[in-house]
# Entry
Amino acid sequence: AVPCRLASNSTIDTINMTTTDNATWKGDVWIDDNWTAEDKAKALELLASSPSVQAKQPQHHEQQQQRQVVVFNEFRRNASTNWNSFYEQNQTNFFKDRHYLHKAFPHEFAWLYAHSSYNNDELDESGNPRLYSIPNRKKNDDFTIVEIGCGVGNAILPLLEQHTELMHKHASSDDDGDVSPPRLNIHCLDFAPTAINLLKQDPRFRAAAEEGRATAHVFDLSSMHPSTISTSSSSTNNDKQTTTLANSADVAILLFCLSAIGPHPSAALSRAARHAMDMLKPGGTLVIRDYGRLDEAQMKLSRGEKSLGSNFYRKGDGTGCYYFELQDLKDLFVNDGDDCTKLELLELDYIQRVYRNRGDDSTRRRVWIQGRFRKPIDAAEENKSHVMSIGCIDDYSATTCRRWDNYYSTLATVKSSELPSNLFQIFPNEFSPWQSLMKQQKKGKPQNVQPLEPPYTASDNVAIVDLGCGLGNTSLLNLIQSLQQHQTGDEVSPKVNAHFLDISGEAIRQLCNDERYQSGIASDSVASHVYDVRQPLKIPTHLEQSVDIVLLLFAMSAIGPYKCDDMSNAVTNAIKMLKPGGVILFRDYGRYDDDQLQLNSVSGAQICNNFYLRGVDGDGEEAKVRNRLELGIGCYFFELDEVREMFAGLEVLQLEFTTRTYKKTGKSAKDLNKNGGSFERRRVWIQGRFRKP
# Structure
C-alpha cells in the first residue's frame, strides 16, 4: 500500500494531513490508503465532537434515545418507499455497472472471465477451475448466484453478460476435452418494486429470463425469509419441481445492502443476516462489500442531525446507512463457541483508498469493509418455511370475524383514515343519475369507460349492496340521507334500496347508529345484515339475482390470498346476487401499493405471498402474541390479471390500475422528520366494473 496524506483541498479537510506528491498518483483515479494511528485518532475525535454524538451527553441522553426510537421506526416503515422513490427519480442512471467482482472475489467469479486467467491457486488437482469442483457438486450441476439488494442489476448483469460470452467461446472451441462451464442461474432481490421493474426491462436480463435462468423478486431481507420466494427448478431433467431460494445459492452477494437496513446490533439487521445465510446451500459462499467505519461519507453525515443510532444515519433522500467495523460482521455471520449455525470466515478486512477528482484535483478518503463467508459443507439444510402454513391461513380464516370485531371496537375510540371511496367520482357512470341531487362535480381526467345502457330513470328503484360494508360507504350513506330529505312526490332521481352486509357484528351495530342510516329506515330504503360472504352458495334469499349494483370496495383483499376457497366463494356469492345486466363495482389494493412496501418491512406481517396481517407491529415474539390475541386484519395486494380471472364470465366494462402519488412538503432533513420519514406516499389501487350478461 502507498502511504497517503490528503491534500489541503480534500473534501474531508477537517482531518489535517500533509500533501501527497502528485507523482504518487501516476494518472490513477485512486490509490491505496494507509491509515496511521494518528489519522484514526483524529477521525474519532472529529466524530465524537459531531452534533449527533454531543446530543447523547447524560443530560440529553434519555430524550435523544426516545426520539431516535421513534425516528428509526419511521425509517424502517418507509425504507422501501424511499428507495422506490430513489429509483423512480434516477432510473438506471445513478450507479455504474460493477465490473470488478472477479478482481474483488476471484474465487467466486474469476471463472467467468476466461479460462486463461486462472493461476495455480484457482485450479484443482485436475487443472480445472475450483468453482467446478466444489464439494458435493455434480459435474453438470447448475451454478446459482443470488444478489440481495440488486437495485437495477449493476452487479449481476455484467456477470450474466460475461457468462453469455463464455458460453459462446466454449461452443465455438475445437477442444473436445475443454471443461464445459456450468449453466448460470441468477436470482435478483430488492425491496424497491421500481428497481425490479427496471431490471426486468434490461435486454440482458430478459434474454436469460426467457431461457429460465433469471428471476427477479421484490423482497425485504430484514423481514422475509428466502423460503417465501418460489422459483422453478432449473434442472436439466424433465422432472421440474417448485423450489424456493432457501438453501439454493452457490454464491450470495451483498453489496452495500446491509448498511441500508439498520445499525448493529438491531433486530432488523440480525434477521437480515440470518435470512442471507439461509439462502446458501452447504458449501455456498456469501460475499460482502459495504461501508466501513470512518468513511468520508460518515464524517460528512455526522455533522448534521441525521443520526438514527450509533454510526447509523439517514441521508437526505430518506435512505439510511450504517458504517461497519470488522467485529460487526463477525458478530452477524461467524460461528463461535456458542453458536454453530452460522458461517466459516474466509476473508474479512478493510479496503482503504483515496479517490481523486481529476477535474478539480480534490480527493476523497474512502473506507469499505469486505468479507467472504462459507456455509459449512455438513450444515443441515433448513427446509422449514418462515411464513404461515396453509394451516395457519385456515386459522386466520377461522378467526376473521373476531379480528374484525376487535378492529371496529378499536375504531370507536381511534380516528380512522378513510380510503378514497367517493362513488360519484370513481364510478361516475353508475352514479350519474344522482349527481345533480348530491351537487357533486367530477374531478380529474375523464375516465375512458363504457356507459351503462340503459341508464336508470326516475321511476327505477335501484338495489345496491355494499358488500363488506364496514361502517358503510360515506357517499352511499350521504345519498340515502339526501334522498330522504328531498322527497317531494315528484322525484327526478331514482330511488335507492341499499343493503349493508358485513361479517362484523360490531361494524353493523355502529352503522345502525349512524344518523344517515337511520334516516333511511323511515322510508324503508335501507337494511343491514351480519353476513359472511365466504360461505359457499349462501346468500340472503331476497337478494338472489335481484341486485343492480354490488359494491366491492377494499373488501376482497381482506378475505385471504388469491384463489383461496374463501375468495372464490365470495366472488360466486357476489355474482349470484346480481340480476341480469347488474354490475359489480370493484376497487381494491394493487400490487406494490405503499402499504405493501411498509408491511414488507414488518417482521411477522406476511402470511403468504402478497397477503399480510395489518396491525402486527413489532418484531418477532410481539407480533406472534398479537396474532394469537386475534389482533390484526388481513390484506391481499392484487395483480390486474388476478382480478380479471376472478370475475371471468362477466363482461369487463373497465379494469385498470389507479395510482396516486401524495407529495409531502419540504426537502430538508427537518422536513423529513416532520413528514414521518418519507417525502411521498405512492398508492396503487385496482379499479374495475363488471356486468352480468
Summary: The mean pLDDT is 80. DSSP finds 24 helices and 23 strands in the chain. The two ends are 78 Å apart (CA to CA). The longest strand covers residues 344-356.
